[in-house]
């Protein structure tokens, strides 16, 4: 996959999670910051080793799954991620306006704000839990519409309140969402038709 990313000029990154393979990292774990940091470090080291073999450099660190959500507003988790980003000299990807983003800024760690085209949001601009029905947007056109609104800085509809506006430098589409490949192609076409240049985020 890293070799393909290099061939396609895609900027790869590390996507570490809680050490929870059974649940694909989508469950919050009660784990000490020391053990979590060790696990995340091992995961980042592993992907960096693979990247070196493929002849490509990592460009960012983005926490995965439950860790992504938890770290946005948890000072301890955010601190662990910022410390790892400092060690590896890589920017973090996360939600704009989050505690994670402010801690990263305070420690002069690059931060790339992100929004999701295939997930619904609560009124507080946090993702609707996957445990809730319709948390994942299944319809292609709905994904495209949300992506265009996010890219343009326009409001999107929330599930629990008024429309919200989310700052985003990069858009996420989960590869395991049904029809993700088709969505990705259509999303790029729609963005380019609206005058956007699709490229890797820069700081």
UniProtKB/TrEMBL annotation:
It comes from Parasphingorhabdus halotolerans. One of its GO terms (biological process) is carbohydrate metabolic process. InterPro entries: Glyco_hydro/deAcase_b/a-brl (IPR011330), LamB/YcsF/PxpA-like (IPR005501). Residues 1-25 are annotated as: Disordered. This is LamB/YcsF family protein. Pfam families: LamB_YcsF. It comes from the Bacteria.
